[in-house]
Specification:
Helix 5 packs across helix 6. A hairpin with a 5-residue loop joins strand 1 and strand 2. By secondary structure, the chain is of the alpha+beta class. It has a domain of about 140 residues: Pnp Oxidase, Chain A. It starts with a helix and ends with a strand. It is built from six helices and nine strands. Strands 1, 2, 3, 4, 5, 6, 7, 8 and 9 form a nine-stranded antiparallel β-sheet that branches. The protein binds flavin mononucleotide. Flavin mononucleotide binds next to strand 2, strand 4 and helix 3.
Length: about 210
């Protein structure tokens, strides 16, 4: 059974027949190019098209990855939100750099971005927090993200306490907010037949370079 499962993982191959990516197809701006591909991901009905794998450097020097949702992509960078005291929060306090990957697998595409990370201004985090559903706002208060927790009942008890404490507007906890990844490098990858994929890298100086697959 396990051997068969291992074989399945090892032997699985998808032939990518999608149209290729030429230099002339690319927008001069990686941000605009990202938006074109994001729109295509939405159009194709991909689940969670704004989900990205965020990798930080662990306090032990080992990379650490998890999925988070991009909440804005513009010329300033890519924003995402979470708990500042979580593992990722502590790691970004230690090394303020990260990489993200948007895995748009059904379209045979990925976008990789690397850069420095900065915290958003409080006013930016406030604005986003205020736009979240009340349940998510309460959840942000109730969850000591990445800390051990006894059981589910403890979490639910904390949710009830917070809900009672903030009967009206829920303010943003100061331990919760956003970050901005300020891109140094973007890579757009399009799968092609026989593993001869198309890869283009945008550098900070505006140049675009094709890489071997
Ligand atoms: C689809 C998806 C979206 C997620 N979005 C977020 C997010 O926007 N912010 C966040 O803090 N965690 C998000 N998570 C949870 C993270 O993957 C992770 O469990 C959490 O941030 C704690 O990670 P850490 O212990 O490395 O800090 C998401 C998970 C999934 C699967």
């Amino acid at each position: 059974m396990n051997a068969r499962r291992d074989d399945h993982v090892r032997e699985r191959r998808v032939q990518y027949e999608t149209a290729g990516l030429e230099r002339s197809d690319l927008d001069a701006s990686p941000v605009q190019q990202w938006h074109r591909w994001y729109d295509a991901a939405v159009e194709a009905d991909l689940p969670e098209p704004n989900a990205m794998v965020l990798s930080t450097i662990g306090t032990d020097g080992v990379p650490d990855s998890r999925v988070v949702l991009a909440r804005g992509v513009d010329e300033r960078g890519i924003t995402f939100f979470g708990n500042y005291t979580s593992a990722k929060g502590r790691e970004l306090d230690g090394v303020s750099a990260a990489s993200v990957v948007f895995p748009w697998l059904a379209l045979h595409r990925q976008v990789r971005v690397r850069g420095r990370v900065e915290r958003l201004l409080n006013v930016e985090s406030d604005e986003y927090f205020a736009s979240r559903p009340r349940e998510s706002q309460i959840g942000a208060w109730a969850s000591p993200q990445s800390e051990p927790i006894g059981d589910r009942a403890e979490l639910e008890r904390r949710v009830s306490e917070i809900a009672a404490r903030f009967a009206g507007v829920v303010p943003r906890p100061e331990f919760w907010g956003g970050w901005r990844l300020v891109p140094e490098v973007w890579e757009f990858w399009q799968g092609r037949p026989s593993r001869l994929h198309d890869r283009f890298v945008y550098s900070r100086d505006g140049s675009i370079t094709r890489l071997a697959p």
